[in-house]
Design goal:
Elements: H1 4-16, H2 23-35, H3 39-46, H4 49-57, H5 59-65, H6 72-82
Helix pairs in contact: 4-5
């Protein structure tokens, strides 16, 4: 059986030869880890007029009150989604 570390090292070497991903892909991918578990909650919140009003008035506090960490990326994504 081949050593898994050698396989990973070979894959890393191969990936170094590929072109960089477009910046928009990287930006989108960065949003996934902190929000992946919260997608259904975010969908529910963005459809709630009360949350939308609170978010418009004070985005970080609205997110914190909803139990989400108000990171810059999440705030930006919600602003884009809500058109704020």
């Amino acid at each position: 059986m081949e050593d898994p570390l050698l396989i990973e090292a070979a894959l890393a070497d191969a990936l170094k030869l590929t072109a960089d991903a477009p910046a928009a892909w990287i930006d989108a991918a960065v949003l996934i880890p902190p929000t992946l578990g919260d997608i259904s909650q975010i969908e529910r919140l963005t459809s709630d007029p009360g949350f939308r009003a609170r978010f418009r008035d004070d985005p970080p506090t609205a997110l914190a009150a909803a139990g989400l960490t108000p990171s810059a990326r999440l705030l930006g994504a919600l602003r884009d989604r809500l058109g704020s």
